[in-house]
Amino acid sequence: MIRSDLIRGHLDAIILRLIYEEDRYGYEISKEISVRTDDRFQIKEATLYAVFQRLERKELIESYLGDISHGGKRRYYKITKLGKAYLKETVEEWNEIKEIVNIFMEGL
Amino acid sequence: MKKIKTHVEEWFSDIPESETKQAIQEEIIQNLEEKVFDLVRGGKTEEDAINKTIVEFGDISDIKQELGVKNGKPVSSRKQFGLHLGFSLWGSGLIVALFIFINVYYTPDDIWFVYPTFAVAWWPLVMFYKWLGWK
């Protein structure tokens, strides 16, 4: 399990990416993160819902109620135009940062 | 499954009621119940599944911060006591000024305004004390 404070700043982008692929709901996202990272990273639900709040407030995603399952309606999230633009920018930024940090991290 | 609902409601108990809070609460309950259901399907007993889900939830303070609880409350309280302090200073100042005026105007030979001044002084003092407590 990796240190969560290091990945924290990238959570918005990670979650945006998953919503970008298709509309998803909370539990699906946390499961997807665990599956894709082979359980090397698990997001805490408390963190996940805080991110939803933040992204929704920034109008990067929007939510709607979907089908009924296990006693309640799932709340699905959908990326907005602004969200797509933001994600694209974040990816470019990340590639830049990755290269810069790698200059100092590689070869040791 | 009732246990999940009780727990979530307890986590949210000190957040003031609002539509957003209600929506998040419902969303979290639904998602956690689905997780429990999934874990049970994977071979866990229901009690184990519920406990695991609750333990893994994490720290509610992240959500509170997003909802503006953590930042909002102490600041506004201090501001409120600052307002109380200002009001008490003005109020007691005016009352004392009135007593001094009556004293000097009607009975200039006898200085008695000190007594009601002391009686009024508790008011700004209490507010000052409260205000200090919030600083």
TrEMBL record, chain A:
<protein>
    <submittedName>
        <fullName>PadR family transcriptional regulator</fullName>
    </submittedName>
</protein>
<dbReference type="InterPro" id="IPR036388">
    <property type="entry name" value="WH-like_DNA-bd_sf"/>
</dbReference>
<dbReference type="InterPro" id="IPR005149">
    <property type="entry name" value="Tscrpt_reg_PadR_N"/>
</dbReference>
<dbReference type="Pfam" id="PF03551">
    <property type="entry name" value="PadR"/>
</dbReference>
<dbReference type="InterPro" id="IPR052509">
    <property type="entry name" value="Metal_resp_DNA-bind_regulator"/>
</dbReference>
<dbReference type="InterPro" id="IPR036390">
    <property type="entry name" value="WH_DNA-bd_sf"/>
</dbReference>
<feature type="domain" description="Transcription regulator PadR N-terminal">
    <location>
        <begin position="15"/>
        <end position="89"/>
    </location>
</feature>
Automatic annotation (TrEMBL), chain B:
<keyword id="KW-1133">Transmembrane helix</keyword>
<feature type="transmembrane region" description="Helical">
    <location>
        <begin position="112"/>
        <end position="132"/>
    </location>
</feature>
<dbReference type="InterPro" id="IPR047928">
    <property type="entry name" value="Perm_prefix_1"/>
</dbReference>
<keyword id="KW-0472">Membrane</keyword>
<protein>
    <recommendedName>
        <fullName>2TM domain-containing protein</fullName>
    </recommendedName>
</protein>
<keyword id="KW-0812">Transmembrane</keyword>
<feature type="transmembrane region" description="Helical">
    <location>
        <begin position="81"/>
        <end position="106"/>
    </location>
</feature>
